[in-house]
Amino acid sequence: MRQSLRPALTALRLAPQLSLSAALLAASGAAAPAAWAGGGVSITSYGHSALLIRGGGKTVLVNPFKAVGCAAGLAEPRVGADVILASSSLRDEGAPGVARGKLLVKPGSYRVAGLSIEGIAAPHDRVGGRRFGQATLWRWKQGGLEIAHLGGTAGSLAPSDRVLLGRPDVLIIGVGGGAKVYDGAEAAEVVRELQPRRVIPVQYISGRKTPKECDQGSVEPFLKAMAGTKVNRPGANLNLPGKLGDSMVIEVMR
After folding, report:
1. Cα–Cα distance for residue pair 198/248, rounded to 1 Å
2. Can you say whether the dihedral through the CA atoms of 167, 130, 188, 212 is positive or negative?
3. DSSP-derived 3-state class of residue 133
4. Can you give the pTM of this predicted structure?
5. How confident is the prediction for the chain on average, in pLDDT?
6. Which of 55, 143, 155, 233 could form a disulfide with 123 if both were Cys (CB 3.0 to 4.6 A apart)?
7. How far apart are CA 15 and CA 185, in angstroms?
8. Strand pairing of 100-104 and 80-85?
9. Mode of pairing for the β-strands spanning 115-123 and 108-112
């Protein structure tokens, strides 16, 4: 056991600026993803709104879930990350104990594993948070890209929110509708406001029977509302370079 840990400890001593995940990857002898070495990010989707984002030697997990509600039937993302960003403490978008890493769920300014992360409070529902309380919108820079995560809100953006979010390179946004997620038309309005270069829609039902307790629909109303925008369907894995073109592209992952 001591012998197997020695390479990881050596990597941490020689390069203390590396995150734990990067050091362990180096110790294993595995090659780093291209996005780590030359800028950009590699993204893996676990369904619902759970994404694992690797880039800049850091690993960020978005919205780990328990397989309940609209996430019923999905495999829970039991992975490790430097930091975990959750929209709320609801079990389908911020379940503690599913993944390993520093879990952030409350608004505020954070510095974790060398990442500067901003959490912005927003109503989770369309009635000022009176039904589901407050959600947290997230913004951070990773692999040279500005990333914004709006995976768990149905509330309109305030002018101050738009200023804080700026123009993201990558926008993660819920589109499936229901009581606490934007529907397709609402999500399209937010996308047009923020003008991101890449849009990753999340929190919608895809290719399986809708769980009885789920009030969300498919991604198609959002795509219809965004008619004329280029759509890619990369599947469960997506690689983005550190510099993106100025045109908007929707990346439908699953």
Report:
1. 6
2. positive
3. coil
4. 0.85
5. 87
6. 155
7. 47
8. parallel
9. antiparallel
**pLDDT for residue 254:** 82
H or E element in which residue 9 lies = helix 2-14
Do 87 and 11 reside in the same domain of the chain?
A: no
Q: What is the pLDDT of residues 181-237, one digit of tens each?
A: 999 999 999 999 999 999 999 999 987 677 888 999 999 999 999 999 999 999 999
Q: Which amino acid is at 18?
A: L
Average pLDDT over residues 127-146: 95
Q: Please, what is the angle between helix 20-28 and helix 2-14, to 10°?
A: 120
Long-range contacts of 87-91 (CB under 8 A, 24+ apart): 87/49, 87/63, 87/124, 87/135, 87/136, 87/137, 87/149, 87/151, 87/152, 87/153, 88/124, 88/132, 88/133, 88/134, 88/135, 88/136, 88/152, 90/132, 90/152, 91/65, 91/66
Percent of the chain at pLDDT > 70 equals 85
Residues 16 and 86 in one domain: no
Pairing status of strand 115-123 against strand 134-142: antiparallel
Residue for token pair 């912005």: 120
> How far apart (Å, rounded) are the C-alpha atoms in residues 167 and 39?
19
45/154 same-domain check? yes
- Alpha carbon distance 131, 110 (integer Å): 28
For residues 181 and 75, give the distance between their C-alpha atoms in angstroms, rounded to a whole number: 21
Range of the structural domain that residue 11 is part of: 1-31
Residues 3 and 56 in one domain: no
Residue whose pair of structure tokens reads 């390179």 in the numeric block: 169
